[in-house]
Amino acid sequence: xxxxxxxxxxxxxxxxxxxxxxxxxxxxxxxxxxxxxxxxxxxxxxxxxxxxxxxxxxxxxxxxxxxxxxxxxxxxxxxxxxxxxxxxxxxxxxxxxxxxxxxxxxxxxxxxxxxxxxxxxxxxxxxxxxxxxxxxxxxxxxxxxxxxxxxxxxxxxxxxxxxxxxxxxxxxxxxxxxxxxxxxxxxxxxxxxxxxxxxxxxxxxxxxxxxxxxxxxxxxxxxxxxxxxxxxxxxxxxxxxxxxxxxxxxxxxxxxxxxxxxxxxxxxxxxxxxxxxxxxxxxxxxxxxxxxxxxxxxxxxxxxxxxxxxxxxxxxxx
Length: 318
Ligand SMILES: NC(=O)c1cc2c(N)ncc(C(N)=O)c2s1
Hints:
Strand 4 and strand 5 (129-135) form a beta hairpin. The protein contains ten helices and eleven strands. It is an alpha+beta fold. The protein has a five-stranded mixed sheet. Strands 5-4-7-8 form a four-stranded antiparallel sheet. A two-stranded antiparallel ribbon has the order 1-6. The structure holds 4-aminothieno[3,2-c]pyridine-2,7-dicarboxamide. Residues 82-83, 113, 115-116, 120, 170, 222, 284 line the site of 4-aminothieno[3,2-c]pyridine-2,7-dicarboxamide.
């Protein structure tokens, strides 16, 4: 083993852990997402060549980040996993082929959804009433932010379902609300947020709920946990049911069967993303059939039945 290779790996791992703490815990990253993604892919490459170097504190062994201890902790009954990222159409095609091979089926339907640039959240309802809201945290233990969730207008406080249910999605700040917030902060001589995702995270993880209320946060809910308990058979059906229950859902999803349709969807939203009223940073591929999702299951860190295609960074036109 070349000592400097190992030393460079440790330096890369430590640098990525600093970036993660800034992004997930301090809501104030100092590096752009695409730069973080590039370094993270480099770490994965080194670790696949040297698995014996991998330790528990590596970013590849953890989801999300440390939590703000000021909030009560909330242990997720089912871990809130992240997902694998791919960075090209070819890689997304290869991932889709691997999934088809795993289930030994050539005609697997995928539900394509916009990847919202926000922060993950979980909502739990009992007897039709919202009883718990939490962040992802490290995927296993998140922050109980229930009082703040009640301040988000588009989160239904009651739903027409008596059974206990957990749903998950993304909390985000729309582009206009973000611009208004930063202009107000500039007028008040305060620091501005680097981007809507950090502003949403900083607003949702506020200890003062009235501040959360003032920030006009929004949500897109896109997961029903244990959907078969509610008679749901596919992801596209679950999205429709979530909307009928009163959740804010993103209806730009598309069920696709072949790769031409995937290419069309990616091209369409790579164009449209600049005009959408919220930030997206990619496309989520989900196996549409829940029985196939169960067959595929999860690896230690990510589901096998979903992955994200990440758009290239938007060129800043100076
Ligand atoms: N599993 C994850 O970490 C996800 C993250 C996201 C995201 N940021 N936006 C949209 C979706 C979606 N439509 O499923 C997912 S899924």
